Protein 1
Amino acid sequence: MSMIDVKELKAYYTTEKYGRIYRVRAVDGVSFQVHKNEIYGIAGESGCGKSTLLKAISGLIKPPLEILEGEVIYNFDDQSLNILSLQEDKQRRKVRGIRLSHIPQGSMSVLNPVRRIRKSFQDLIDAHLKLENRTHLNDMNMVKKHLDALGLEWNVMHSFPHQLSGGMRQRITIALATILKPDIIFADEPTTALDVVVQRGVVQLIKKIKKEQQNTLIMVTHDLAIHANLCDRLAIMYAGKIVEEADVNLLFNQPKHPYTQMLLDSLPKLGDKSTRTSAPGTPPSLINVPPGCRFHPRCPEATERCRREIPELVEVEKGHRVACFLEEGSK
Ligand code: SF4
């Protein structure tokens, strides 16, 4: 059984400009499943809707973001839960921390700048761990054990966030997100603000935690190298829709959607000094999306049909889904 089952999800931002209401169709009919203990990556250009998708499936829904349609079901060992049916943020918060957690892009959105790091751990434990006979000493022992397991020094606990490097702050954020051993971790561009050497350390840390705790992880980043290094399966998003999904090796070696092929062609390759190509044009506005296939204005293979009809995301070989008319009948 899948750990997360997303069905026909539509999540739009509603904005008003000069008295007119606009709908930004950031997530527009997205369905996918994430298996237990896997790392599922979501990639795409900035503005394709990947971070909104992560917010929607983790229940972080605040105006102007609205869910118009769809379901997001979590299948925990002891219960199934539709996160979107929990109306109140208070109800959703109960699920977070212990069952779900977030690793955000910026550590300063989690760490309180005027409190020492140990206070952030204490606040998190106080908010989510409702055990009888809890003591401060037991809590701190739990934190120490967790930091030891992650190879982090205990003395960082006495620091204020500004006294630590960006890489150390991000490691602390990851330690915070995982101390209660959540079933599901949502990571939104967790390495984007870091240099490549520090990125490598953070990726290794995430792998280590995942191996020890057996969590399910959903990783959003535009950085395809991070996906290649970390993920089991990868979904490529374009203009609010998933256009291709496959095992990460399959997707990198045999991309089928023209957009995925262009994304991969734009990556530098060791020893190849030829000019890299990239997708012509820019992604469409999510307020006025093109009719038919949303990629057709940039697609070199587009036909008249692509301008009229929307291609479905269909399985073209085992575990490989593609939304492109070129793949019709290839199964
Ligand atoms: Fe290109 Fe048509 Fe395929 Fe869209 S459906 S990616 S426009 S060939």
Protein 2
Amino acid sequence: MQLEISARSSLCLIIGDPVSHSLSPAMHNAAYAAGRLPFVMTGAHVRAEGLTDAIKGMRALGIRGLAVTMPHKVAIMELLDAVDPVAATIGAVNTVVNENGKLTGYNTDWLGILRPLERRTSLKGKRVALLGAGGAAQAALYACSTQGASVAIFNRSLDKAESIATRFDASVHPLENTEELSAFDIIINTTSVGMAPDIDASPIPQSALSRNQTIFETIYAPITTTLLTMSERVGATTISGHEMFLEQGVAQFQLHTGVKAPREEMEKIVRSSLGA
Ligand code: ATR
């Protein structure tokens, strides 16, 4: 299906630094085309010092929506007219919607963690080990804690883990304590260890994994990381990072357009863009 662009098309942008690698325009444009919606998305390279002007520009140009990526997810919050309570609790915005000049910030990253997990298992009463303490970890911590799981954060820097743990009563452990991981039902990797080009690396060894665990990788390039390969080898249930990217995008599409997202079309383009 061809995307039809006219002077009446609603414009959405992904803003970030860097931004040129982003798969969001390909995914959203495929979805607009599938739904025959008068929307178009492209990218804008916005540096930290240009964010305030970018938001003024959004107002002046009547840009309909933003997808927000690093390093703007926290700084953008104070520039908006409203922030959704969930985004405020997580402390980050990855989606902005312009409703007749009123800019509201949302967070859909946590749904990128929740949806793939709830398709496989219930989180209620589960023990979750969260590897990492950055932005993705905060979204995962919110998703798991609000669904009744208990969360333990394993991170290289304990002070960073402690600063996010207190809000949700999570425990904090050094990342190197991998022998403790066998006690967990679900392990979610939000560290950048294993990301291209360092594709042979894994944040934890295979000996920490077992077949009754669910291993959720949030890295999507490569689509099969060393951690996922090791998890498959021991027979664990695996969730690939492209699912998180897809599900945050599905929810984002719905906020931008107001209609249900064509999930299958979106998954197809994400998988083919990642060479799967
Ligand atoms: P994001 O917002 O995408 O989650 P981030 O904020 O840069 O990314 O967080 C990256 C995470 O990967 C952090 O938890 C970081 O650990 P520190 O808090 O100790 O910095 C973790 N990380 C990055 N490189 C790492 C490495 N070589 N070994 C262990 N952890 C690493």
